């Protein structure tokens, strides 16, 4: 307040505290310009913005900058958001119209104000895209719902893993949660699609829907299970290299991808087949490629009958002894002629 002690630039009334000195409005801008000519005032000259009138005496203050000292914030997600809320409350109560605060560090804190909304929006859009693609591929609303539920459960299990593995929600964790939706769909979608295209062979005479579901589930796992397992195992081997890492980004990536592989494969191999065996659709989606490679379709009627009576697996090779091999007519006639001689 030293600058107001000269040239009658302050009005001190009896009873006022020293820091409550006031400047008459007619003398304020004159005193302010005088202050800017001093060594002390020159440091504050760039913190005030004036209007653009031609005459300097007509210019008015339209903006100014003030600095606030803040102690170090250790936890941005908690203390940082509360600090911004308190600061904005002070601005609204005591600041001029249009007053706002800014610091580069505020950009990191700002994200936590929209954290929940953006997370829900990103996950919802990802789930919607997955559901539309699965519906277009399978053409079955029931299977689409089941696969979508399995994908949602992976994210739900990841939230529990985050809590028990001492992680906190932050942008890096949210990115991996959104990525988990696209990764985990593979473990369920292939099993579900194969379930749809499996056609029970006619010789089994499966009329009960529970038997049809059980057969389709068993064949789906045998046809596609190994491929899905290899995909999950290769992904797991790729992230094992991050397990001894100490850097936070690598630690988070390993923990969450570990959960994605484990929970995704569990839902694809355990949960989804069990659900399909109980409430899965019994209709068949025709797939010519699958029909050509269906082991049941490669057997003729005689082989099926022999395998059924002997309780031999369909793909087992049936060996026939040369003595049991049926003989043609020429061989029979030659044998009869030889015996007659």
3D structure, described in words:
The chain has a two-stranded antiparallel ribbon. α5 packs parallel to α7 and α7 runs parallel beside α9. About 8% of the residues have low confidence. The N and C termini lie far apart (144 Å). It folds into three domains: 65 residues, no CATH class; 44 residues, no CATH class; 184 residues, Multidrug efflux transporter AcrB transmembrane domain (Multidrug efflux transporter AcrB transmembrane fold, Up-down Bundle). The protein has 341 residues and is mainly alpha-helical.
SSE diagram, text form:
Elements: H1 25-36, H2 39-42, E1 48-50, E2 61-64, H3 76-94, H4 106-110, H5 115-138, H6 141-164, H7 171-197, H8 209-240, H9 248-279, H10 288-293, H11 301-310, H12 329-340
Helix pairs in contact: 5-6, 5-7, 6-7, 6-9, 7-8, 7-9, 8-9
Name the CATH class of the largest domain. Answer: Mainly Alpha
The biggest beta sheet reads:
2 strands, antiparallel
Strand content: under 5%
The residue fraction in helices comes out at: 55-70%
Q: From the structure provided, what is the oligomeric state, counting identical versus distinct chains?
A: single chain
| Low confidence ranges | 12-16, 290-294, 310-325
In which order are the strands of the major sheet placed?
Answer: 1-2
**Beta strand count:** 2
Distance between the termini: 144 Å
Total DSSP helices: 12
Order of helices and strands: HHEEHHHHHHHHHH
Computed CA radius of gyration, to the nearest angstrom: 39 Å
Q: Give the CATH topology of the largest domain.
A: Multidrug efflux transporter AcrB transmembrane fold
